[in-house]
Amino acid sequence: MAILLRELYDEGLLNIEGGGVSLRISKELILASPTGAAFRRWRVEPRDILVTNKEGGVIERGRYLAMAEYPLDLYILNSFKKCNAVFHVHGQYSLVYASKRLSVPMTTNHVQILGKIPCLKSTNETGLKKKYLASPYFVNMPKAVLQRPEVYIIFKQLIKKINNSFKGRADELERHGLAFTVEKHGLFCFARSLEEAIENAVRVEAACRTGLLINLIERKKKDGCN
What we know:
Elements: H1 2-10, E1 19-24, E2 29-32, E3 50-53, E4 58-60, H2 70-79, E5 85-89, H3 94-99, H4 109-112, E6 119-120, H5 125-134, H6 149-165, E7 178-182, E8 186-191, H7 194-222
Parallel strand pairs: 6-7
Antiparallel strand pairs: 1-2, 1-5, 2-3, 3-4, 5-8, 7-8
């Protein structure tokens, strides 16, 4: 995984804005990319990769804990039994649609295979944090992530939205992966294998890039430009 993360960075699929990978390696064990890897330009060593159980307990830890979004990955891996990998990326094209609260456009045949790719609306992060810090309470968090409950409760809200958005779609993992974006945050692709999840992220980025260019052409036509 350490080598793969560096390759994904070199190929432009991961960037220094954030992202991460989770990979199920057995019924009980999951590999997770470490927190802060993006800001270290994805220079990750094997000893930096975390091994956790399916509840997020640390089995083997290197220098860092897991990425902040790991609770979302854990929920997906535990809820979709045919899912073995989650690929999260702050893609330059999908992030445009996510920031506008728009679903990924079905502009190419490759992305149409994935079905609807919704944008999950972000919760009032500032409000939730202030409310928690004003009246703290116990929050049971995965041990593999930094223990910041005021951040974790935000992911708990997103977990509810993942559940609502993908009810009845689990069987689609037999034919293809699934994907969603989070408002102003990025793209999540999950699939039977890491290779499939990465491939689907490429498809989504291509569809979003195509959508933006289509909009540009249509605007030029509307303005009377050839």
